[in-house]
Structure formats: C-alpha cells, structure tokens
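Quick one:
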Amino acid sequence: MRDTIFCVFSVLTTFVLAIVSLRYVTNFYLLSLFYSFQVHLAVAAAAASLAALLVKRHWYALLTLAVSLVLAVHGVVMAREFVEAAVEESRPAIFRLMSFNIENDNFANGPAIADMVIASGADVVNILEAEPLLSELPRLLKTYPYYVGCGIGMEQCDTLVLSKRPLIEPRIRNLGLLWRNRLTISTIDFDGRKVNFLAAHLTKPYYDEFHGLEIADLAEVIPSLPGPLVLAGDFNTSILAPDVQSLMRSQGLGTVSLEPATWPIAAGPFGIPIDHILSKAPLRLKSVRRIADSYGSNHFGLMAEFAIDP
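Output:
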C-alpha cells in the first residue's frame, strides 16, 4: 500500500514539474497559464514530495523536492528582476492611478463601482470591460470631465479612461488580431511634466498565439512614446509568462516589490497578479495596492501612486 501511495505522489509531482519546466524549452501558448503559476505549482510539488517522503524514504522524492525548490526560487527571482528601488516616503506622489477590470456583465454593481471611483481620489482611472459604468458616466464626468472610450474613439465600451486633467491627443488602436480597440494611448500634463498613459486589455494566453501578437504590438508602441510612461491593465497572465518578461526586459518596464494578487477572487492574497501597473523611467511607482472589494468582478482592482525621478 505504501508503495502505491508513494508512486501516486511521485507520478503527480513529476507531471507538474515537467509542465512547469517546459518554460525553459518552449513558450507554448497552451502552457502559459501554468508558467504564471510557477511558484504556486512548485510549492505544491514540494509539499507532495515531502508527503511522499513521509510515506516512504526514497531518493526520487528527494530529487523531486530539490527540483521543486529550485523552480520556486527561480520563479521568485524572475519576478524580482523588474522590481524598482523603493521611492522615499518623503517624495511626493505626482498622481494616483486606478486600474480595474469590472467585468462586462457586472451591471448590478455599476452604481457602487461609480461611487467608489468618485471617492477614490485617483487622478486617472482605467476601467476595463466598462459597460456597467455607461449609465453612470454623467455623474462620473462631474469628477472626471475628460475621458476616452465608451463612445469617444470607439463604439464599444470595453475600455474607459477617465481623467481630472485634459487628455492630450487620446487615441485608440487594436491589439493583435482577435479583439478591436483594446489599447488606449494618451498623454496628461501634470504641472509641466507630461506622462504617457497606455491602458491595455490583453487576450487570455491560451487563445492560440494572440497574446504573443498583442505583446509584440505593445513592444512596437512603447518606444514611440518618449518620456515617462505608464502601462496598466488586464494582461490575463503574470509577469512570469515568457512573453511578458520579454516585453518588460526590452522596454525597461518596472514594478513594485510585491505585485498584489488580483485573480482568482476566491484565492484572495494567494492568487496571482494578472492585472498590472508598470512604469518606465523617469516615472517611478511609489506604491501599488489592491482595492479591498472586488465589487462583484472576477478581478480585484489596483490603486497606484507615482513619483518622478529628479
């Protein structure tokens, strides 16, 4: 009986480790979700290896334990590659940004989300799958008189960018080949300092090669926008995904030391960050926090503060 239980643990652990380890061989789109969960899966494999050792002492369980720990540590190292140095508390934030995928059929919570946005104190708000806020737009515009999306620049209401300050040359373009109007580009002047804003909504990574094509489009757009830059939105994958890592590395994008988990909702802080707020020098992230309430969405929203390097 012990041999059978040990064999089951070993087979399952080997299968999980093999899937995660394929990231070092191929960026196959169907495995991208597993790559995003690398640390979680590696920790689970380590626990399974320890359980196997309790059932039966064997060198193979020690081997899978060692491989699990290596994959977990490397996952943490890869995430920390893009962490910016902490901004001094004394340095003032020049603006606050909210980014939130509210889910396009979440109409029951539209008024509550609008109340939260108005009370948030954010200078710029990026709402994805924004249809539930369309009826709330008139009162949102009393606080955020400048916007793009939801009828401005696009007929659909997937993306809505609200601002307290004028949006300079706002425009909308497609990302990849699957969905239309999933990228908004605008510039905002904060007391003489212009900041470029990109709000993006990417496809789920297991939809064929579309996610990679969208990443390639972002890599083409970002260099055309000199100066401070923010890229925020729903990437549907963590920064452990190879294509997102490539984008961040090639474009010099940075993040905070610990990105808040935003999905799945049921996992709370033990989920993964698939919604991101990224910055490019001389813009620096001072903080990023998760909005405590999901307001009926299948994502948690994010609130970030930014500072500028001298």
